[in-house]
Amino acid sequence: MQFIKYNPYRLQTEVTIDGSPVKQNSKFNVGEKRLQEWINKLPEYVREEFNTRDVEIVFYGTKLDYEDLKEIADEANIKTKYLPAKEGMENKEAAIQAVFEKIQKGPFDALKSSKVTRDFEKAKNNEFEVNVVATMSLGKSTLINSLMRQKLMPTALLNHLI
């Protein structure tokens, strides 16, 4: 069984073949790179390591990272299987809130200011500002309309069609 374990938080990739780590000179020894930095070369790495693409790779990691791997693997007809990684704490927001409250009770007065509390509450909020900056006619309005899935901003493309 070919197994890839990827931890995006620590930038760690472990690859094993039939239960053994890959050789030192294997291209699967990607170092501390993000999966997205090397995953496009997966078909090449598989071909070099196995002399075939007729393998199945079991991936252990986050769903988003698996989707990136699967897209490349599917294009190269490499079979994949997904084992979801434990994401750790069940309620991360509550854990972050508890850490913040502990900081507020700590010895540093600068971390107890109303500005720090206001900024923390703002960071927890689901609403946030997005700035779209570019020169004229580069698609800013088209991008905004697309993201919002409605026509909020007039676009040059629409003006030319009318």
UniProtKB/TrEMBL annotation:
This is Small GTP-binding protein domain protein. SUPFAM superfamilies: P-loop containing nucleoside triphosphate hydrolases. It comes from the Bacteria. Gene3D superfamilies: P-loop containing nucleotide triphosphate hydrolases. InterPro entries: P-loop_NTPase (IPR027417). The lineage of its organism: Bacteria, Bacillati, Bacillota, Bacilli, Lactobacillales.
